[in-house]
Amino acid sequence: MRYSAFIIAVFLMLTSLFVLAWALINAFEKSPVHVPKNAVLVIDLATDIMDAEGEKEFSEQMQDLFQSNHRQTTYLLEVLDAIEFAMQDPRIVGIFLKGGASHIHQGSGYPVLHEVRKALKAFQKADKLVVSYFTEADVKDYFLGSVADTIVLNPLGQVELKGLAVEMAYFGDTFEKYGIGVQVTKSGKYKSAVESFISNHMSDFEKEQMTELLRDIWDNVLKMIAESRNLTKKDLNTLSEKTALFLSEEAEHHKLVDMVAYEDQAWELFSGGNASDRKISLRKYIRDIGNKKLLKKSITDKPKIGVVYIEGEILEGEGSSFNAGADRLENRLNEVRDDEDVKAVVLRVNSPGGGAHASEKILRAVRLVKAKKPVIVSFGSYAASGGYWVSCYGDAIFTDPMTITGSIGVFGLLPNVEKIAKNYGINFEGVSTGPFSEINSFVKPRTAEELAKLQGQTDFIYHMFLERVAKGRALELKDVERIADGRVWSGLKAKEIGLADFYGGLKDAISHAAEVAKLGDNWEVLQYAHERKLSYEIFKLLQESSEAQIPIRGMLDVYSKHIKRGIESLNSLNDPSSIYARMPYSFLCN
Fold first, then answer.
1. Which residue, 502, 527, 500, is CA-closest to 512?
2. Is residue 191 annotated as a catalytic residue, yes or no?
3. How many angstroms separate the CA atoms of 558 and 575, rounded?
4. In sequence order, what are the beta bridge partners of 94?
5. CB burial of residue 160 (10 Å; 0-12, 13-18, 19+)
6. 221-241 pLDDT, tens per residue?
7. Secondary structure of the chain: what % helix, strand, coil (to 5)?
8. What are the pLDDT digits (tens) for 445-463?
9. Is the pLDDT of residue 303 over 70?
10. Whole-number Å distance between alpha carbons of 464 and 462
11. How far apart are CA 100 and CA 151, in angstroms?
12. Is 31 exposed, middle or buried (0-12, 13-18, 19+ CB in 10 A)?
């Protein structure tokens, strides 16, 4: 009896907490936000701008909230809509871009920053002021902030214009040292993802493709900065190669900034008195204008353009917070296909690829959607290998010139523990019914005959990949073979060689979808992303109610994040045939 009473009491308590939490969330979202007269919208450049919301477990959310290195995150369409709304909002007189020290834009790739940059340029055409203030400016900060009408640098600050680099970790010697055997199969001479597991250095093919990729991205960065600062790209590149790090007086001398001053002096550039008393944060402004579209069904009867996000590693199953689970995406695409209110679909792809089977499953769902309504693809920072596989049947593909794409090739990883087991006195022995019965064994290396069989399987899937691209892009197979071979391309080159149709961002793809579906101006966007749990809503409530300064992460934390993402990438290798369509395991150093 006492036990039953206890259960009832716990149930009633949890129900009460649930109701209270939802009441608090609804009250917070509906509570008015004060936007001062002649307000200045503040965009902190330390904020990560992601494509779409991922869903973390409650423990991860609480850890993020209370850790000193927690970083605020917002989402691309929220930012673009806020800037666009502010352009017409008589309460907003300008935008203040605030950059700090050692910011690592984990989610903000150059294509995302480019799209925000374009929105800021449109904002300026409404005769509204944009001011950038830097305590220090890394390359990404400066790339975005250079669009401002006036750039102010702290007297102790500096501007980095050092170029780009790419780094890869090689574990071949490590695995050899500890007795872990790794054999590989691959199709495509540029398919260098396997090098991390079997080599201790970068191959010539990898150096070739990465050098060209970085050059394309860097040329675009220089071009846009030069246009904004009334400099030539040649002169800017010379400054980069000779000086790279510009102290405040040097930055002003070379016209990289307009003023060397403190933050309070930067605020004086806005007319109408003390502008710092009239500031409103981006997060609060988004809430004020009611931009709460993500994951919320529209209450209007306008035709919809559905936006589906393929974010992160492509893998089998449901996936988790920031990867693309094939089962979950298949269900989501089926939902979009069957929704009669959705007249066109935009597939936003920000993925380095992943499992071949998972990529094919997602592509199949995309093709079924395309049979009923237009599918327009928008590339984010990455749309490579499996990320391109799932995209290639789009009616049109939009890419940013700085997107990393291509990598049309596949590889297989075949680890074994024979040596490390013997080092610890462990021996394996068994019997089999045929010469290939142990082909999937992880306790011994594959024989030459077994490797030949597995290479044939890899070549078969590679040929299937080529055929998908050829048919989806209406290209001759021989032309696809020429540009494939596992090679990574910039978005700039992708359009030139037929892997994309237009240069543009997510907004451009959405507008094109409306045009193809002949919707005129009578439509709205419906975004499909992770479903929100109550714990997520509580986390956002706590996060949005905080006005604390965005912390700056230390170098140790920065590199630990990269290592953690590398481990998560390895954990995502769950293809049933152990064959993967993924770009190289590297990260771009801005």
1. 502
2. yes
3. 29
4. 40, 129
5. middle
6. 999 999 999 999 999 999 999
7. 45, 20, 35
8. 999 999 999 999 999 999 9
9. yes
10. 5
11. 13
12. exposed
* DSSP code, position 499: S
| Helices and strands (DSSP H and E) totals, the chain | 22, 26
CA max distance for the chain: 86
Six token digits for residue 300:
């209007």
Catalytic residue among 240, 359, 385, 391: 385
The whole-angstrom separation of Cα 394 and Cα 473 is 8
418-426, long-range: CB < 8 A, 24+ apart: 418/179, 418/181, 418/443, 418/444, 418/445, 419/179, 419/180, 419/181, 420/178, 420/179, 420/180, 421/179, 422/179, 423/179
Angle at 410 between CA 204 and CA 404, to 5 degrees: 65
Residue 586 bears catalytic tag:
no
In the structure, what pLDDT confidence band is assigned to residue 566 with cuts at 50, 70 and 90? low
Q: Which residues contact 128 (CB under 8 A, 6 or more apart)?
A: 86, 87, 92, 93, 94, 95
Q: How far apart are CA 504 and CA 568, in angstroms?
A: 30
3-state secondary structure of 181: strand
**What is the C-alpha to C-alpha distance for residues 237 and 232, in angstroms, rounded to an integer?**
9
Three-class SS of residue 297? coil
Q: What angle do CA 85, 89, 92 make, to 5 degrees?
A: 105
**Lookup: tokens for 562:** 């990269």
d(CA 457, CA 540): 46
Q: At residue 406, what are phi and psi to the nearest 5 degrees?
A: 80, -130
Question: ∠347-113-493 over CA atoms, to 5°?
Answer: 65
Q: Looking up tokens 């690592």, which residue turns up?
A: 104
The count of other CB atoms within 10 Å of the CB of residue 10 is 10
- Contact between 311 and 51 under an 8 Å Cβ cutoff? The reply is yes
Catalytic residue among 56, 98, 118, 191: 191
- Six-digit token string for 230: 């009334």
